[in-house]
Every structure is written in structure tokens, then in C-alpha cells.
Amino acid sequence: MKKTLALALVATTALGTTAFAQEEISEFRIGILGGENAQDRMNSYQCLADYTTEALGVETKLFAPADYNGVIQGLLGGTIDMAWLGASAYAATFLQDPEVVEPVLIKVNLDGSVGYHSIGFARADSDIASLEDMEGKVFGFGDPNSTSGYLIPSIEIPKAGDGITMEPGDYFQDVVFTGGHEQTIVAVANGDIDGGVTWADGQGNWEDGYNSGALRKAVDAGLVDMNNLVEIWKSNVIPEGPVVLRSALPEEVKTTMTELVDGLYDQDPDCAYGVAAGDTLGFQPVTHEMYESIIAARQSVIGN
């Protein structure tokens, strides 16, 4: 969004004409999916909250629930107005109420693509270099509502080799949920589990945690040295999750917020870096059709 739009809205209020935001909403609430600790998530989004307050003329509140379902339920219950969801979290929201949110934007990688990967990884000193080496080992997944942290691996990993199943005690010694992407990365790095999955764009350098994603955020936070980790599996391309807005919001609010996030990269690259979890070209429009295959996959594996 061009900064002049936000200033124009505020200036209108200052002149005595109540802005649409103050007439129709009293606050704006942004939900942030898990992936790193709550305070880091809040810090990464604070700049967006400040721009939102300026643009809408109302207080903006950030919410960073402990798990993905907290954001999903917030959207369904009307206590969260906007969120950047993973594709599976969007599918979960849609399957429970197809009318509650509208997908409006999708993150764009540096090469112009709009996909990412689930990345399997282990410690470099563990002698684990593939899924075959994970037999009899403990494999960690992030969150049941995560696309890259559960849904896609649960479908693709069993197809990657003979005899691989996701049943604990079968091929893997155990299959555990860590609670989120950051937790998985730290657990593998510390040797608490043998391998795990997380998300990354798969572009750029491994030692940087690639260009964007949970690994990049972990590197930025000083939580991990990628030279101590090794990639052991990589999914097919997954569509980036959508930025969604609650359908019941006033149309002017939805338009303003779509334009704000769409133009965030041009207006404030540092803010866009934090919101998009690394180096990107920002966001571009997206529609529901992008996620129909993920919705079908989730329905077949999880049900809703």
C-alpha cells in the first residue's frame, strides 16, 4: 500500500470526518501462526500492526496462540480478523466454514514462484543422510494443522521408500509432535529427536537456511548453525499459504488491508522480511482455487 493512502485516512479523521474504520470496527486483530516462539512472532509483526493502526485508524492487536488451531478457531469465532495461514490451516478453516474467510494474497519467492517445500533434516554428525537411515529412529513433526510440518510429509514420506509408514513403532521408532517448526529445529539440533521436518522455500543457500522459511528464521535468531544439519528429504512443491481476511469485515477494511500487505515489500522491505519469514518479492493476489488440492488432501488424511 502506498503510504499516502494511510495518511489520507488519518488526515480525514483529523479534519473531523470519521473514517470508515472508526465507524465500523473498533479494533483490528491479526493472528500469527506458530513456527517460532510467541515473542519473536510478535516482534516480526509489530511493524505491520503499526501500519495497520495508521491505515485503519483503530488499535491493532496481535495474537500468537501456542498452536495453529488457536488461529483457526480465532478466525472461525470472529476473534481474529486477518492471518497468514499455511495451506492446510486454510483447508481446515474452509472445511469447518467455507464462508468465514477470504484468501487474498500469497507470498512470492525471489524467482517469482509461489511454492515452498517440506524439508526433512537431521544432524550432520548423526550418520543420517536419507529416510532409509531414519529406520528405527525418532521422527519429529511440528503441528497437526501444518502443511509442511505434517500433512504433506504424512502423504509423501510413505511413498518415498518401501516399508515406510507413519505408524509409531513400525518403520520409525517413534513419530512425535514437537509443537511447531522452531521446536522441531531445536529438538533436532539438540539431539532430542533424530530427524524432523520443517518448511523452507528451497532456494538460495542451505547454510543460510535458504532464502525464506522456518530454517531461515532459526538462523536469523541464532538458534542453529545450518552447517550442523543436513537435508535428508524434500517434498514436492507446496503452494504457499494465503493471507486471509474475515469475510464479515467491511469491504473498505478488506480492500485497505489487502493493499497494505500487497505493498509492504515496496514500502518497508525490512518489515516485509519479518512478516514473510525471509527474503521474498512480497505478496501477490491469490484465489481459493489454488488450494483445492490441499483441501482434498487434508479431507482424505485428517477429515477436516
UniProtKB/TrEMBL annotation:
Single Gene Ontology BP annotation: organic phosphonate transport
GO cellular component term of the entry, any: ATP-binding cassette (ABC) transporter complex
- Show which residues constitute the signal peptide: 1-21
- Keyword annotations: Signal
Superkingdom, taxonomy of origin: Bacteria
- Decide whether keyword Lipid biosynthesis is in the record: no
A Pfam match is: Phosphonate-bd
Q: Which stretches are transmembrane?
A: none
- Record InterPro entries: PhnD (IPR005770), Phosphnate-bd (IPR017797)
Q: Which family does it belong to?
A: Belongs to the phosphate/phosphite/phosphonate binding protein family.
Q: What is this protein called?
A: Phosphate-import protein PhnD
Upper lineage is: Bacteria, Pseudomonadati, Pseudomonadota, Alphaproteobacteria, Rhodobacterales
